[in-house]
Fold each of these.
Amino acid sequence: MLRLPPFIFRPARSLEDAASLLAGEGAAEGRARLVAGGTDLWPNMKRRHQKAETVIGLASVPELRGISADGELTLGATATLTEVERHPVVRERWPALARAVRSISSPPLRNMGTVGGNVCVDTRCTYYNQTEEWRRSIDYCMKEEGEICWVAPSSPRCWAHSASDSAPMLAALRARIHLASHEGELQERVLDLEDLYNNDGIDYLAKRPEEIVTRILVPEGSDAGYCRSAFWKLRRRGSIDFAVLSVGAAVWLDGDGPDAEVTDARIFLGAVASYPVPAKKTVEALIGRRLDEETIAEAAAVARKHATPMDNTDFQAQWRGAVVGKYVEAALRECAGLPVERLTPRHG
C-alpha cells in the first residue's frame, strides 16, 4: 500500500490567509503546496513525485467557490468538475466546455477534483508516473531527481505531456485566469489561460509557486450564441483514462446560412506536447472561407504539423500523430453541423 509521507496540514479560512500561508511556508522553495480536491496531489505525494513539508487546504476558502454566468462565465477555482459539467448555464451556453469536463476521469474523482486543480494538473510521462521503486530501479528521470529524459535521452529538457482536458477547451474559448499572491498584501494578476503554460514538462506553468488560482473567466462572446465549439478526446477506454490526444475547437462565423464565412477560430491540441498547442496553421486555413467539407478537410490536413507526440504515453507516437488530423476534422465537422464518422472513443 502506498502511503502519504509526513507533512503539516494547514487549512486556510480566506484567500488572504491562504496566500499568506503559502508565502510564509516556503512555496517558492518547494516546501509548501496547495490542495483542494487532492486528486492529483495526493497520488503524486504517495508515489514521491511531489514533496511538501506543509500542505495548505483551500476547501474552506469562500472566495474560491461558486459558478456564475452574468454575461461572462466565472468559475471559482474550487468549483468541482461535477459542478461545472452539470451546471445548466454551462451546458446551454458553453456545451463543449461541459463535454470536456465530463470527459475527465470518473464520477467519484469529478466529485472531488476542482477546475482550478485541473488547469494546473501535473504533466505526465510513462517513465515518471510510476512507483518510486520502479523509477529508482531504472534511475530517476530529470522530472524527479534524475538528469536524463528517458523519452529523449539526448534532450536537455523534459518532454512530459500536458494532461489537462479542460485547458485546451478553455484556451479555445478565450478564457482568462486570475492568480493571487501575498507580497506584503494581497496581489492579483490576470493571464490569458493559454499563457499559463510553458512548453516544458517540468516548468510547465507560468504561475509562480506562491500564486493561487482564484477563478477562471470565459467571455460571453465565446458562448453558443456567438460561436460554435466542440471537444474531442482520444484514450484507450471510454472513461477514466487520461487523454493521449484531445482537441478543443471554437469557430466564429459571420452568419448562420450555408454561405457564412469563418471570421475567427481557435483550436488547441492537448496531450501532444507539454502545453496545450495552438493549431495556428489550421486556423489560417479556415479564416475567410465557408465551413464546408472541402475547407475542413484542407484545414485538418495541416493539423499534424502542430503535434509532436512522443513515446511517453499510451499508443504508438506515430499513430497518435497520424490521427491528429482525423480528430481535428471531427471537431470542425461537429462545429459545422456536418455528419461525423464514428471515432472511438469520443469524449466520455
Amino acid sequence: MTANPPVPLPPGLEDSLGWLLAQCFRAYGAANTQAVAGIPHGHRGYQALSGAAHCSARNQAELARQLGVDRTVMVYLVDDLATAGLVERIADPKDRRSRLIRATPEGQRQLDATQTAIQDAEAAVLAPLAPAEREQFRAMLRTLASHYIATAGEPANVCEVVAQLNK
C-alpha cells in the first residue's frame, strides 16, 4: 500500500465508469510506454510479438482479428517486426498461400525482457491495492473481457470503435 492518502475525486465523476477507466488507462499507458519502447509500434507491436511467440493465431489475418487491427495495418506491423528481427514469416505447411508469424529467438528474448518491464510497471500502477485486491481486480477484468468477447464475437476493430465514439 502507498503511504499517500487518495485525493478526492471530482464531484460528479466519482461514479462514472468511463472516467474511472480512463484515469486507470492513462496511468497504465504512461507506465507501460517505457516498457515497450524497444519494440516497433510500441504496445501494438508488443501484442503482435506476444501473439507470434505464443502461437495464438494461425496466420497474420487471424492475428489481426485477435488484436482488432485492420489487415492492411497488420502487414506493416509484421513487416516492421520482421525487419527488427523479432518475428519471421514461415510458409504454412497446410496452406502454401498462408504464412505463419512466429517469434525469432531474438524476438523471444525481447518479449521476455519487455514482459518483466511491464510487470514492474503494472505493479507500480496497482500499488495502491493490497495483493489480494490486485488479484481480485484482475479476475474481475478477465470476467468482463471474456463476457465481451463471448457476446460481441470478434474483437472490435480499434479504428471503428474510435470512429463510433467520435460521432
Amino acid sequence: MHVYSARFHLHLPTNSLKGKRGIVKSILARARNNFNVASAEVDLHDVHGSAQLAFVTVNKDAVKARQVLEKLEEWLVEERPDVDIVDVLIEER
C-alpha cells in the first residue's frame, strides 16, 4: 500500500476568522466527497488570510495515489479561483 499526502498553503480572500472557517470547511468537505481523501487544516489556524490544508490518500498503486492528489489540486484551482495556492507539496509517506 502507498500513502501519499499533499500539503497546500493557501491565501484566502477574507479578513476574518469566521470567513476563513467557512472557506476552509467548504474546501475540506468537498474534497472528502469528491476525492475520497482524509483532510484537515494543519497549521496557521489563527491567521485569517492564510491556511495550511493537508490531504491524504491510500492506494495499492503509487501512480494512482499521486494522481488523486494532483487532480485535487486542479479541482481546487478550477472550483475556487478566489483562493490563491501559494505552495503544494505532494509526497509519499
Amino acid sequence: MPADANPYGDIFGGWLMGQMDLAAGSVASRRSGGRAVTIAADAMKFHMPVVVGDEVSVYADLSAVGRTSMTIEVEAWRRARHSNDSCKVTQARFIFVAVGDDRKPRPVPPETN
C-alpha cells in the first residue's frame, strides 16, 4: 500500500523484512510447539524493488534445528498486478530460539511424524 512506500513508490525494505519475519516465526512456532523468538536475521539480500500494487508471496523453509534454535531460510517473491510472471526480490536467513513461559530458551522437541 502507498503508506508502506518511499516517495519513489518502492515498498520499504523494513516492511518486507517484517513480512518475512512473520513467515519464519510461523514455521518456528509450529516446529518448536510453542513460542519462538527472532534472535538474528542474516544474509538479507534485496535483489529487486517491490512497487505499490505488486502481489508479494513469502516462503519459509526450516533448514536446521539445534538444541534450542532453528534456522529458517526465507524468500520473498513479487508478481506485478497484471502479470503471471514472478521473480525473487528478497532472501534472508532467520534464527529463532524456542522459549518457555519464563521467556528463557527451552529445548526444541524431537520431530514427530
